[in-house]
Design goal:
The protein has a single domain, classed as Divalent-metal-dependent TIM barrel enzymes (TIM Barrel, Alpha-Beta Barrel). 41% of the residues lie in helices and 15% in strands. The protein contains 10 helices and 8 strands. The protein has an 8-stranded parallel beta barrel, surrounded by 5 helices. The radius of gyration is 18 Å and the shape is globular.
């Protein structure tokens, strides 16, 4: 199995508006070559001239520090209802947003583009008719985006199973059902971006919060996986530092074993770490990133 260690850029939000600063941290300090770029750092809805200039700056930094953008993803600013929104005009806006994001992703050299699937409102969730309709137009939106993304040059789309029913894919059966539904008749494969800290803790089935059950079940469908240290309370995107590893449940050997068991032969493990805008978390973010990379290096050389 070919495995790479990469980095989701959510950590850089509002800390590094200068591309060369965070790309240098990734490529030179951390010695990581692959990233998943979040839309928070480069919006596809910037005016054309600004977007072109910013894209040029980012690509120059990536070339200088030998960093590749393998995939792109939504982020903190874009964790919204988007293709599940109850208003058709808002859904149309987000379909267009994802098309622009696909164009940008291709310009950046990415293979795939991803997001959470959509987010239901409580009103949609409480009404069977509204719920079913929301799922249907959410899937239809992704099919439209997929057709465009294929023509643009992307190889695949990604969706991320989440931890609550409103955000889709909160249990193994729910994720399996939705994955089959969205891939039926789609122009471009929609794969998964698994997250080792997701799953519904209120589910009566303990496997729904077992990261290794998720990896064994869906690993083959996941060209990339979000990793962070996870505790039983699922309280945050913890780094792989000695403090959090002491009672964390994510162990590299078990992650790799589960992925092999799934039949995955090529995967990127993406450190998806968030650091609160509080001290000492803010000033320690680079140190904690470095310790997390060092923790995984004996197991993932590339």
């Amino acid at each position: 199995m070919k495995v790479r260690l990469g980095l989701n850029t959510g950590f850089a939000l509002n800390r590094y508006p200068e591309y060369d600063a965070w790309v240098k941290l990734v490529g030179e300090t951390l010695d990581v070559r692959v990233i998943q770029l979040t839309a928070d750092l480069l919006s596809p809805y910037y005016p054309k001239e600004i977007l072109a200039a910013q894209t040029k700056q980012l690509m120059a930094a990536c070339e200088e520090y030998d960093v590749r953008i393998e995939t792109t993803f939504t982020g903190a600013f874009t964790r919204v209802n988007h293709l599940a929104h109850p208003d058709a005009s808002i859904r149309a806006y987000w379909v267009d947003w994802f098309k622009r994001f696909a164009d940008l992703s291709v310009q950046l050299g990415a293979d795939g583009m991803g997001s959470h699937f959509g987010i239901l409102s409580f009103r949609q969730l409480s009404s069977p008719g509204l719920h079913e309709g929301a799922v249907a137009h959410n899937i239809a939106g992704w099919h439209e985006v997929a057709a465009y993304a294929k023509d643009a040059g992307l190889k695949y789309l990604l969706w991320e199973p989440m931890s609550i029913i409103r955000e889709y894919g909160h249990t193994l059966p729910a994720a399996r059902k939705l994955h089959a539904q969205v891939n039926g008749g789609i122009a471009l494969p929609m794969k998964m971006c698994l997250d080792v800290d997701h799953g519904d803790p209120t589910s009566p089935d303990p496997t729904d919060t077992d990261p290794y059950a998720w990896l064994r079940t869906f690993g083959k469908e996941s060209p990339c996986v979000h990793i962070k240290q996870s505790r039983m309370n699922k309280g945050g995107h913890w780094p792989f530092t000695a403090e959090h590893n002491a009672d964390g449940k994510i162990q590299p050997e078990k992650v790799l074993s589960a992925l092999r068991e799934s039949g995955n032969d090529d995967v990127t493990l993406l450190l998806e770490l968030s650091f609160r805008e509080r001290e000492p978390f803010d000033r320690n973010h680079a140190k904690d990133l470095q310790e997390s990379v060092q923790y995984w290096r004996p197991f993932v050389k590339e």
